[in-house]
Amino acid sequence: MSETATLEINGKKYEFPLVKGTENEIAIDISTLRSVTSGITTLDNGFKNTSSCESAITFLDGEKGILRYRGYAIEELAEKSDFLEVAYLLIFGELPTKEQNEKFHRDIQKKSLVDEDVKKILDGFPKTAHPMGVLSALTSALTAFNPRSVNVDSEEDMYWAIVKILAKLPVLAAWAYRKEEGLPLEYGDNSLGYVENFLKMMFDLPNEVYKSNPVIVKALDKLLILHADHEQNCSTSTVRIAGSSHAGLFASISAGISALWGRLHGGANQAVIEMLEEIKEDGGGYQKYIEKAKDKNDPFRLMGFGHRVYKNFDPRANIIKVAAEEVLADLGIDDPVLDIARGLAEVALNDEYFKSRNLYPNVDFYSGIIYRAIGIPVPMFTVMFAMGRLPGWIAQWREMRLRKEPIGRPRQVYIGATERSFIEEDKR
Ligand code: CMC
Fold it and tell me: DSSP string covering 218-259, please?
């Protein structure tokens, strides 16, 4: 194979080197394109063909349905690991030794207190505020309480910033929920594991003894692992690009939370349940919704279907589908919404429109069903996704800073008015 790509513009040829990844992915390195062509750029709306960086964190092959964190298959990690261990793996590159793992857990527990003044900020939000907005704002506010920016040349400094955000974000997430519910804020119990403690912080009532359910803890742990990273998706790219200006870790994560919020990204898990509920209210017949999704004049999309990268199947959806069935069986829940989901998936998977466009159920199609079964309220679904994605955002931010990447600053093709003279107000 030739090691270069040739581009011909107006009869003139330019050579560009090919870059090959460890999984044999090939990219054309066009970093000299503008200078050698005197200003020509590439246009790639939605970055469908653009690799924004070289990364050693997550590999995914959308055609084959492969997802690996640092080389380990998602299926194996979901079965054998736990969320904090996966977080360590993603961020630092290797599975932790027993000592490293225990220290990581202990350090996170030690840093889980949040400045009491954060409660005053939380108090300023109306109860109706969406918890994603609250989480993004409070995460950004953490910067004010930790004003010294991280010295990225110090492993020690970097480690503690990472520990702090992993420790405090679940507290903020639980508080966002408790505020909405009018419940007293609490810190949980450091003798519990990360996920178990989060559930306690969410659901502990002042007049009851909290008892955790191992089925729920395991299901949530698995869901968080499945969401932990997904290479250069919308929110992760946001985190990397915000951080590329040397904005701090917490500020960059806050930007990522905002990007995750939308219905086409993390917000899809909320949108899926709302769609399934709507179908249920409408009598449960899903064919009408299939037709709506296919109608080009109707903006409706089948939420939880399709993926920018997976064009065969989403490996996370396969794991989560089985997990959803297990959780519902374990908890003895008979959820009519799951029947609608099963039926909808089957009809869509056999429909030519969906088949020809490679539209398969994605991770969010089933995650909401589990969240619902374990008592997470619908507006908190995307917050759960944010908690899961946090290690990925951290890992990507750290990688970007350690590789000393330049500030992210795309070009554009200007299509506006050419130069014209100012028109006085009375002549407009
Ligand atoms: N329902 C109906 N039609 C769809 C859907 C859908 N969910 N998704 C894509 N299409 C059609 C789309 O109309 C287009 O048709 P045509 O070629 O005739 O114009 C074709 O499929 C390609 O779609 P696209 O919008 O060009 O694909 P994309 O890669 O830009 O978008 C997506 C990917 C995930 C934004 C999109 O599939 C979608 O909106 N899905 C529903 C929202 C969703 O479930 N999002 C969660 C993604 S997984 C979790 C995460 O990573 O955040």
Answer: HHHHHHHHHHS--SS-HHHHHHHHHHTTT--HHHHHHHHHHH
Q: What are phi and psi of 34, to 5 degrees?
A: -65, -40
> Taking CB atoms and a 6 Å cutoff, what residues make up the pocket around ligand 1?
46, 230, 233, 264-266, 268, 293, 301-308, 357, 359, 362-364
Spatial CA neighbour of 215 closest among 323, 117, 109: 323
Q: CA 162 to CA 167: how far, in whole Å?
A: 9
How far, in Å, from the CA of 214 to the mean position of ligand 1? Answer: 35
- What is the number of the ligand 1 atom nearest to the C-alpha of 265? 52
Going across the sheet that includes 4-9, the strands are: 4-9, 12-20, 26-28
Residue type, 308: R
| pLDDT tens per residue, range 199-258 | 999 999 999 999 989 989 999 999 999 999 999 999 999 999 999 999 999 999 999 999
Q: Are 341 and 366 in contact (CB under 8 A)?
A: yes
Residues catalogued as catalytic:
307, 364
Query: What tokens were used for 155?
Result: 């492993």
End-to-end CA distance of the chain: 61
Nearest Cα to Cα of residue 228 among 138, 304, 319, 327: 319
H or E element: which one contains 118? helix 118-123
Mean pLDDT estimate for the chain: 94
Query: Tokens at residue 76, please?
Result: 């194996």
Alpha helix positions (H), 182-228: 194-203, 214-227
Residue having the nearest C-alpha atom to atom 25 of ligand 1: 308
- By C-alpha distance, which of 301, 306, 332 is closest to 317? 306
pLDDT tens for residues 324-351? 888 888 899 888 888 898 889 888 889 9
Q: Which residue has the tokens 């840093």?
A: 111
Spatial distance between the Cα atoms of 334 and 266, rounded to a whole number of angstroms: 26
Confirm if 198 and 174 have CB atoms less than 8 A apart. yes
CA 313 to each of CA 144, 228, 341, 362, 369: distance values in angstroms, whole numbers, following the listed order: 42, 18, 16, 8, 19
Structure-block tokens of residue 245? 């200006």
